[in-house]
Amino acid sequence: MSTEMKTAQEMIAAAMAARAAENPEIVSIKRVLKLLDKTAKSNRTYGSTNPVAQKFSQQLFDELTAHLATYEKLTFLIQRTALMCKEYVVYQAEQDGGSESIAFKLYADGIRELTLHQGLTQEDLGFFLESLWGGLDPTKDDDDIVTRIWGKNLSTISIVTAEEVASSSVGHEGFIRLDSSLSLSDSTLRELLDRERTRSKQMSGAGSTEGTTSTGGSQPNRFQSGLVGYEVTDEELAALAKEIETESNQDGLTYLLDTLTAILASEKAPALLTRLFGLWGNIVESLLREGKWTVLENVLGLLHETDAVRPDLSEEHKQQLASVLDGLGRAERIKAIESYLNRSPEANVEGLLTIFLLMKPDTVPALCSLLAHLTSPAHQAIVVEALTSLAKDHPDPLVRGLSDRRPTYVRNLLSIFIKWNNSKFIESIEKLSRYPDAQVRREVVRAVGLFRPSGSGARLVPLTEDEDESVRFATLKLLMSGQYTVPFAQWSPLLSDGSFMDRPISERRGVFQAIRATCGDEAVPYWQNLFTAWAWTNRNKKEELAVLAAETLGKLATPAAAAALELGARKGGAAVRQACTVALAQLQKHHRGKRMVSQAEDGELS
Q1: May I ask the CATH class of domain 519-606?
Q2: Greater confidence, 148 or 184?
Q3: Considering Cα of 520, then 522, then 523, then 524, what sign does the dihedral take?
Q4: How far does CA 554 lie from the centroid of its chain?
């Protein structure tokens, strides 16, 4: 065949495929025939009573019923390796499919067209499936499909046989040519044969009055083939070629898994089941290494349901199945996941979390190692979520991991502890208050506030001297909450340090407010001393401290605080006197407000 001819055919095939893809009826027929092929194979291989075969049969019946409800009938022409509907290929036999093909089976038994009509029952469909591969009556194994269907005489299934097509010659030497003005897009083969018979009768009647040729026969019909001709454009051929290519590129993995599933559901031979479970273990291993998480998720879901589908499994095979499932989290497999994810940072991880959650708790150490070595934050987040669930009752590997020197790993572990919200881990977490990474130290402050929301704040005070400003402010905010107590002696080293003067005024104010909240009147002598102390150096900064002290005492609002402010208002410098006077006014206003509220409450009670 010339290159030009091949190219033209490919173009026409592609064009026809494109048209078929746009035709909803053709799409529906293809879907039905694909299910028919799958159902016929499962029935033939495992028997119609097998659960998998019954599931396929029910799916076929539902799909076929929906099609017939919309289009009233489903008709297709039968060729040796394909089924046609109108001008489209709706079923193509697999290469080297041989007698396994529905098309070949129907063709070999002499059927050239098959029609399924609206009203087809599940019993009718079951009969048709049995007819395809025998099994209805052991004494009639030699019956072909035509004989079986004619014997049943169903109104919902009709056929056209090769014999009927041949007999359309009505005794002539060649087949009578079907009307070329008609195409199978408009009529079925049955309709064309009926029209041809009618026309032949009419022609026979005319011939009896007009005479015959000298040989006494209908000579013009001698060289007519009896075949229907089609005019196919280049675009249709191109579309058809494209469709064939698409079907040839069908996902082999899905087909393989479907086959193995059918075997798992029906195989009885112990030796074959033993080999099958060994094969499933290899499949799990391969899918893990290739990062096919959604496929693996489906496989594991299937294996988990095996006991329900196959309650007849022996103890040996049940142990094999458990080994496949329990071995999911083996160290080498977790390492394979790590290798794949770090090699493919943008990989699709849909289904991966489910894979992790199907692992046993003894996988926790391996998952901790995985979390420590992953480079992508998105991938780390998936492992964190899995460990949050799996390690809740097995936290020891995570506790040990807090001493790791990789800050990202430690922060991820802290996020898990915080999600658990269990105060028993506070001792291990507080040990990280001097961890080199500032973000870790900030998470420690957050954890302390969650797990120890009140009580002694002594262990927090050192963090107010942290080198990172965000850590210092997070700590001060916690201490200012009024839920913690700290002896003033623990604050003294901070206050007496010369660098304290150099801190921003906002931070010094925060320290004073934290001292007020944790020490109360115990700190009043320190602040009172700031009002009257004489300074030869850093006079301005010390005066700033005295002003901040007045502001703090005003908020403390205790009698001791008021006495200290009155002293400052008399003996302090000008700025200090003014600050103390303002604080006293606010303090008195605060007390008046409290008295009014108290009186109002007393009035309501009386």
Answers
A1: mainly alpha
A2: 148
A3: positive
A4: 59
